[in-house]
Amino acid sequence: FSSKLPKHQTSIFTVMGKMARDHGAVNMSQGYPNFETDVRLKDLVTKAMKDGYNQYAPLAGIPQLREQIVNKIEALHKKTYDPNKEVTVTDGATQALFLAITAFVQPGDEVIVLKPAYDSYEPAIELNGGKPVLVQMKGKDYEVDWDEVKAKISSKTRMLIINTPHNPSGKVFSKRDMQQLEALLRDTDIILLSDEVYEHIIFDELQHHSASAFPGLAERAVVCASFGKTFHNTGWKMGYCVAPAELMAEIWKVMEVNVFCVHHPTQRAFAEYLKEPSHYLQLGKFYQEKRDRFLELIQDTAFKAIPAQGTYFQLLDYSDVTQEHDVDFARRLITEYNLASIPVSVFNKDQLDQKQLRFCFAKTEETLVEAAEILKKVR
Ligand code: PMP
Ligand code: GLN
């Protein structure tokens, strides 16, 4: 047989995670919290199991959860989705992304991807016979050149993928970014896939500008979200997407033959837990404290930082330490110093190396202190 993904390599998260474990390193590589999810949420899942919610859920998710999702979006972004036609609960955002790409990308179609990009987009496009068209975000603060994006649009462009707040850079798209995107897509039939998994992790009074909030975007957007990021349980793999009914109908065709539905008891738990908005609205403050603490702790190191605007990732510029390639340096940080991070070049167009490493600060105080102590020794 011939491989459908001949160039595909093991995810950098798996590679760095394994190296970290092998060396017993302080692990700030793969993005997940090293603290617990709320015990009340765990109790709600076990209660749902004990109460007998152990058989298939409806394809799109249980109505109570879809209702809560719609209410949340309405309150935050003033956009009303139909809970019966425009919401699907998915196996994490990764599945939502895959469903949308599979539902709409046909062989020969082009999909514009802003780089650096989360590593599941391009393989999903390629598995469906599509062609990723890459546009690199500019400079070490990752500005989008919307004119360049516009120049990449062709008659074959089927989809454009954005991610805000952005992994790995921590950049948050401004209102102006979203308006420029809206203008650019007007009069096209391009579908927007908006990856908003870090929607609630946003700092310094900035606002999350969801594609849902812009009529010219919402009418063509599949917006993807992740409960794993928001509620500290990435291993539960629960998320959702919202989209206009016409698009969602196509997504359901794929969902039906893909998994049909996702874990039922967990949906019961989230439906209950989402009734209290403070469970997600305080997340920005919670992670801003962690970001600020990490930045304070590393002040006396040779690493430089532009503070992340959102997400639980902080990029550190190590160009004053060494000129090594970021992949080599990330490996050496593990083997010589026992600290694991993620090299950013693997997400960039043409593996552009800007001498930056990504550190996940969704970690306990103890881990942040340990990491900073190590970074102080790296000169
Ligand atoms: N998109 C981005 C930008 C992410 O960082 C992640 C998680 N690493 C995902 C999607 C996937 O989310 P989930 O774990 O809910 O599948
Ligand atoms: N989203 C996580 C990160 O960026 C990784 C998820 C995964 O390993 N697929 O670190």
Describe this protein with a few key phrases.
Aspartate Aminotransferase, domain 2; 379 residues; binds 4'-deoxy-4'-aminopyridoxal-5'-phosphate; 15 helices; seven-stranded mixed beta sheet; binds glutamine; alpha/beta; 40% helix; 14% strand; three-stranded antiparallel beta sheet; Aspartate Aminotransferase, domain 1; 12 strands
Terminal Cα span: 49 Å
CATH homologous superfamily designation of the largest domain: Type I PLP-dependent aspartate aminotransferase-like (Major domain)
What's the architecture of the largest domain in CATH terms? 3-Layer(aba) Sandwich
Neighbour order of strands in the largest sheet? 2-8-7-6-5-3-4
DSSP summary, beta strand count: 12
Can you count the helices?
A: 15
Order of helices and strands: HEHHEHEHEHEHEHEHEHHHHEHEEEH
Q: What is the CATH first-level class name of the largest domain?
A: Alpha Beta
CATH topology of the largest domain: Aspartate Aminotransferase, domain 2
- Structural class of the secondary elements? alpha/beta
**Would you identify the regions where 5 or more consecutive residues have pLDDT less than 50?**
none
Overall helicity: 40-55%
What is the radius of gyration computed over CA atoms, rounded to a whole number of angstroms? 20 Å
Strand content: 5-15%
Main beta sheet: 7 strands, mixed
